[in-house]
């Protein structure tokens, strides 16, 4: 790199820095966010757990409610609750996939039970972050009414963050959310015959 | 729901269960994966930290190398290393964004230093998961040669998982990866004037 190139790079970056500073200073509000992770790719629940990781780092209380996963299924993420008994509440309240239960009434009942737990968390202002894992699945099959969920979100503490995961997020939820990210699959190891592994999928 | 509907639902789910069992049993291989989180949406690094969270739950060793973020920038995720001194190694070795340093030679030198640390981790089979955070940025600007990175990945322990994050993942890396997820922005609170907040962005 010549001196001229180095100088040109510096000038470009100075200009970019000015724009960046302007952009950042235009954002002033702080508030509890409703975040939705959807799409058919990997990373929806995983990114929610990454937010838990980040908040635990600050010593903030977090809670997770899992609407579909069943308690028999051991996961690395759930074991983390043992490390943070005062900061992390973990409720795995599903009955497994719809094709495991094969019983719609049972699915509806377990979702209703999970929502009761979720609602208590959404009324507790000591909790900085609530993860409603795979709630989108329950909403998609109308196991829980959208209006019930939107009500719970609207009435929660002003600074509480909520993450809702699961594919096929409904339009009403997207409209109510502050952040919506779609995780899309570009390439997946399952297609190459690799199975679900500890530490990757669970 | 009538008895007839309940029966119909059950039959459909039994059929689906059969297909699911067949699909799962066709996947038999286990291996260390190269995972790439790219796209312009939120959640790339966050999902990588979610994988760290999951692996720590199993008591597995993890390591993070940050290629762009500078050590002055305090984050919740980095504080987690204090909680797991024997399991989590954290190296924040960047110099900040290109528009902060305004010095290309400095950026290249800091990336080379970070890669040296990364390479040692990629040769250590006691480490189950290595996160190379924002390595895609360094690759995009040719601060590190693609061949150097691919070599390091090829020669790592067979069961070690690696996650590489950052927008604009290059084609050569996508070709070499086992899993590629693109995080896409559907809606972002920055657009509504909300600023970056503790526990959400950092």
UniProtKB/TrEMBL annotation, chains A, B:
InterPro entries attached to this UniProt entry: CblAdoTrfase_CobA, P-loop_NTPase
EC number: 2.5.1.17
Localisation: Cytoplasm
One Pfam entry name: CobA_CobO_BtuR
Keywords: ATP-binding, Cobalamin biosynthesis, Cytoplasm, Nucleotide-binding, Porphyrin biosynthesis, Transferase
Pathway where this protein functions: Cofactor biosynthesis; adenosylcobalamin biosynthesis; adenosylcobalamin from cob(II)yrinate a,c-diamide: step 2/7
Family affiliation: Belongs to the Cob(I)alamin adenosyltransferase family.
Function noted in UniProt: Required for both de novo synthesis of the corrin ring for the assimilation of exogenous corrinoids. Participates in the adenosylation of a variety of incomplete and complete corrinoids.
Protein name, per record: Corrinoid adenosyltransferase
The species this protein was found in: Commensalibacter nepenthis
């Amino acid at each position: 790199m010549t001196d001229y190139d180095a100088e040109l790079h510096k000038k470009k970056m100075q200009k970019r820095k000015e724009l960046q500073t302007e952009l950042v200073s235009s954002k002033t509000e702080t508030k509890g966010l409703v975040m939705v992770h959807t799409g058919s790719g990997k990373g929806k629940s995983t990114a929610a757990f990454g937010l838990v990781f980040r908040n635990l780092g600050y010593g903030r209380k977090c809670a997770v409610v899992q609407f579909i996963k069943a308690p028999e299924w051991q996961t690395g993420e759930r074991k983390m609750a043992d490390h943070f008994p005062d900061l992390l509440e973990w409720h795995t309240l599903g009955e497994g996939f719809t094709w495991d239960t094969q019983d719609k009434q049972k699915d509806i009942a377990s979702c209703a039970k999970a929502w009761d737990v979720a609602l208590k968390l959404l009324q507790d202002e000591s909790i900085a972050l609530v993860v409603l894992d795979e709630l989108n699945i329950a909403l998609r099959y109308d196991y829980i009414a959208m209006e019930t969920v939107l009500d719970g979100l609207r009435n929660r503490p002003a600074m509480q963050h909520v993450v809702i995961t699961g594919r096929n997020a409904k339009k009403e939820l997207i409209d109510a959310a502050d952040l919506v990210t779609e995780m899309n699959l570009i390439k997946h190891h399952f297609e190459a015959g690799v199975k679900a592994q500890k530490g990757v999928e669970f």
